[in-house]
Amino acid sequence: MVKWLIRVLVLIIIGLGAVLLVRDDPGFVLVKYRSYSVETSLAFGIVALILSVSLVHLVVRLLRGLWRLPYSMQRYSQTRRFDKSRKLLNQGLIDLAEGRFDQAEVNLIKMVEFSESPLLHYLAAARAAQLQGKHDARDSYLKAAHEARPEAEIAIGVTQAELQLEHQQNEQSLATLNHLRDIAPRHDYILMLLARVYTELEDWSSLVDLLPEIRKKKLFKESKLKEMEHKGYKGYLHEAAAKSDRPALEKAWGIIPNSLQADPELIIDYVGILGRQDFSVQHAEQLVVNALNRQWDDRLAEIYGLFSASNVNEQLKQAEKWLADYDQNEHLLLALGRICIRAKLWGKAQGYLEASIGVSPLPATCLALAELFSDHLQQPDKAAKFYQQGLEYCVKDNI
Questions:
Q1: Contact indicator for 380, 374 with CB cutoff of 8 Å
Q2: Whose CA is closest to 43, among 56, 26, 60, 58?
Q3: CA-CA distances (angstroms) from residue 396 to 30, 363, 370?
Q4: Could you tell me which residues come within 8 angstroms of residue 384 by beta carbon, excluding any fewer than 6 positions away?
Q5: Please, what's the b/e burial string for 29-39 (b: 16 or more CB within 10 A of its CB; e: otherwise)?
Q6: Are residues 346 and 366 in contact, defined by beta-carbon separation less than 8 angstroms?
Q7: How far, in Å, CA of 38 to CA of 15, rounded?
Q8: Which residues contact 395 (CB under 8 A, 6 or more apart)?
Q9: How much is the pTM?
Q10: Fold for domain 280-399?
């Protein structure tokens, strides 16, 4: 509208300029065609010419508009459909976020053929179908997404792996992720999903292969990463133990990072495996000593007292070194009592065990003291007393 007003204003200015130009000498214009002739003043001729040109221009524009009318209508209709498809996508995502999964699926698929981004429609619809338990529909939407945007294979594959993992389709998810890793071997999120799948499948050897890279890239929070490492390396040790092969078990332990080899949880598990397999625990004994020298742990102290060392006197000396710092630790005193029993130092054993009970009575200490009185000191009354006392503590701990 503004453009038309400007054009009319320009024509008026030109017309007035022409009138002023020929005011003193009006001149004339003669137009002749065959036997027809028209004569008029110059001012009128200029105005007529301007109006004629404007009229021709208007007619041309009108004819051009009529010629392009079908295309314009088609474009207008297409634009409206694109707008409606975009609104349906937005509404579908809102429905999905608000938990209206059935309505979300309907809105996301409706008019998807007119969308500028059909991939988003299909991926969101696949998630909505999954949340309704419609897994066949989910797979159909993922297939349609791949057909719509085959170049977006990573995005589609990651979504498929996530949905399969959520539905406990761990084997299928693993196959999807392995394919994606062949395409994008350095993709961090694919690595994270693989770690989750291996954990679900309890495929500890495969998880252990990933853990160094996961730690290097810091893909999980430290607390989550430590939990995963504990679970992975612990499972890896048990896989090696199942072979009943000492070299395989030691090799599995050697793969564990040095920082984790000092971890009490893993040491306790490793020592337990060695004991169950009737393997020599001399190597494990030194692991426990090194770990306790670095950082005290009551459970490791008790385990140290259970070792049947080749040199019980050296074992006793080592344990008594810790008394300087932990003389009021009931677990260390229990360990010393057990070592003294193996060294046949009955009086010393009794002293340590009674000191342990004096600090904090443990059922295990009561049992060790009762066995000492029964088997070595020949005092059945005291043995019965500590058997009963230990039983009472066990009952209290289980209440």
A1: yes
A2: 26
A3: 127, 10, 19
A4: 370
A5: eeeeeeeeeee
A6: no
A7: 20
A8: none
A9: 0.71
A10: 1.25.40
Angle (nearest 5°) at CA 239 between 233 and 240: 90
- On whether the CB atoms of residues 330 and 360 are closer than 8 A, the answer is yes
Q: What SS3 class is residue 68?
A: coil
- Backbone φ and ψ of 84, nearest 5°: -65, -40
Residue 159 CA to residue 139 CA, distance in Å, equals: 11
Instruction: Write the single-letter amino acid at 289.
Output: V
Measured CA to CA, the distance from residue 393 to residue 363 in angstroms comes to 6
Angle between helices 118-131 and 153-166 (to 10 degrees): 10
The answer to whether 240 and 249 are in contact (CB under 8 A) is yes
pLDDT per position as a tens digit, 133-167: 898 999 999 999 999 888 999 999 999 999 999 99
Backbone angles phi, psi at 379, to 5 degrees: -125, 80
User: Which has the minimum average pLDDT: 106-115, 160-169, 184-193, 315-324?
Assistant: 106-115
- Three-state secondary structure along 96-147? HHCCCHHHHHHHHHCCHHHCCCHHHHHHHHHHHHHHCCCHHHHHHHHHHHHH
- Can you tell me the distance from the alpha carbon of 96 to that of 203, in angstroms, rounded to the nearest whole number? 34
Q: Which two tokens mark 20?
A: 């002023």
Bridge partner list, 29: 40
Tokens representing 356 are 């342990």
Task: Name the strand (E) or helix (H) holding 162.
Answer: helix 153-166
Domain locations in the chain? 2-67, 280-399
Of the candidates 118, 158, 163, 111, the one whose C-alpha atom is nearest the C-alpha of residue 136 is 163
**Dihedral (CA of 331, 333, 336, 338) sign:** negative
Q: Is 344 helix (H, G, I), strand (E, B) or coil?
A: coil
pLDDT tens digits for 350-375?
Answer: 999 999 999 988 999 889 999 998 88
In 3D, which of 156, 158, 162, 151 has the Cα closest to residue 140? 156
Residues 258-311: tens digit of each pLDDT: 888 888 889 888 888 887 776 666 778 888 898 899 889 999 999 999 888 778
Q: What is the pLDDT of residues 110-132, one digit of tens each?
A: 878 877 888 888 899 999 999 99
3-state secondary structure of 262: coil
